[in-house]
Amino acid sequence: MRQPQLEPAAGTPQQVRIYEVGVRDGLQNEATVVPVEVKAEFVRRLLAAGLKTIEVTSFVSPKWVPQLADAEELIRLLGADGLGPDRPVLCPNDKGLERALALGVTSIAIFGSATETFASKNLNRTIAESLTMFEPVVNRAKDAGAWVRAYVSMCFGDPWEGDVPVGQVVHVARAMMDLGCDELSLGDTIGVATPGHVERLIDALVEGGIDLDKIAVHFHDTYGQALSNTLAAVRHGIGIVDASAGGLGGCPYAKSATGNLATEDVVWALQGMGISTGVDLTALVETSRWMAEYLGRPAPSRVVRALSAA
Amino acid sequence: MRQPQLEPAAGTPQQVRIYEVGVRDGLQNEATVVPVEVKAEFVRRLLAAGLKTIEVTSFVSPKWVPQLADAEELIRLLGADGLGPDRPVLCPNDKGLERALALGVTSIAIFGSATETFASKNLNRTIAESLTMFEPVVNRAKDAGAWVRAYVSMCFGDPWEGDVPVGQVVHVARAMMDLGCDELSLGDTIGVATPGHVERLIDALVEGGIDLDKIAVHFHDTYGQALSNTLAAVRHGIGIVDASAGGLGGCPYAKSATGNLATEDVVWALQGMGISTGVDLTALVETSRWMAEYLGRPAPSRVVRALSAA
What we know:
12 helices; alpha/beta; 310 residues
């Protein structure tokens, strides 16, 4: 299978860690409900393809997201493959956290918002109230020895509020990191960012006291900008990139889809630039083709489609 | 209509010239044959949206490309809108050039290959033979006072030959510029380039004596890399970018499509970074929606789709 030509680019890190979100964020946003055995097989194939960090599932109420009603079962099915510091699970609140800890989970993620409108719509709280909700979750997780990631959504724009001031994002991000979180993921939930904006927010966060090596980026391709913004971040010193195998969760055939950055597309770029990700591109493409076949439609990832057509 | 948040990025030019290829390269690669009146209206709408440089048509044999059999008629229909230094037409050989000059065309483009295999398949000649074919075309055009662009395809990879050595591209590019061409467009015909590769080729061309301000880039999105590579080029000093309104010619629903960079997607990025293109994004999106409606399917451009869904 074709591989990108190796042409190192100046000013880039030697390696980037991919935080794989296809199993949780990806499948959660697909119309097809995937059986738990297939999800477990998906995790195992991703591990075999060299993905080291995989968000496995989310302990939300099954009433909200039926696709995630199998969270406990998936963790049990995976055994050792589903636990440990590199298998975070999303825990939106204390109830979710207790379910996760009871299974031996030692790595979690919480999900905040940079804007009041999205905090209200997604969490039914103000930003301040959401921080009050997160505090005991993070404390309990840290007491249990767990690693904690903080997602902040709407960092680069909001569908209701429009532009989002950089200072507002820094305020929320600092507040979440001050709770004791270990990693911060900056979400461009509606995909509107451009590279100068990415660089400015990263600079502002570092000036605000957040370590550069704790910052991850999570771009969506709604406006076709996901890979450009990701590479702008990487060239600005970011070493952790969220991506979804095959582009799962962002089917280009669905009008409402917002489009996750496809892991294959960013791995193609990074590998070409001589930046190591540990990912075996051929094995990953095969995995995404297998999942696309299960879902009954082509993978959104352009690399997967190009290499499948070849 | 939503616009990107303005956040200037360091190390970028103040403005970029979009070389619009949707009318020629885009429609040529669409399954639907578009009537000449609609093509003329398309050109006029693009001009009204602020696109300054528009490749209008190609004087190839109608036997090869039936979509372009209306080249003469289109130029006549457009009148003053279709002529001048910013309305180049593609002239693959001396016959095409004579047809163009007879109509008052004063700006042309020729189309070469960086690889022997593609030269053979596309031009039925070796690279050396193609240069021999171009020489009288460029001489005749320059004698007539015309401006000449040189396309070089397969600059970053070839479907048959695999990797393409940078030195080979420089050799062909220099030979074409030495004929007297005014501008060089580097084509990533199969969409495999990554940013380090882009920067290395640009550096090599400049070292080879080609002025940076005469170099344009033409990326395809086959592997999802087109915008990233374009922005890498712009941040490396390139001021001329080829793009296709709406992403025409690269329908993502067609398995064989290679995917032109959508003008809207690159304008979104550049506008966000504070780089002027002169394009009115709202008017351009309306134009691409109008054309997509004519073609009976959504525009491939993600910006067009996102703003149409909003």
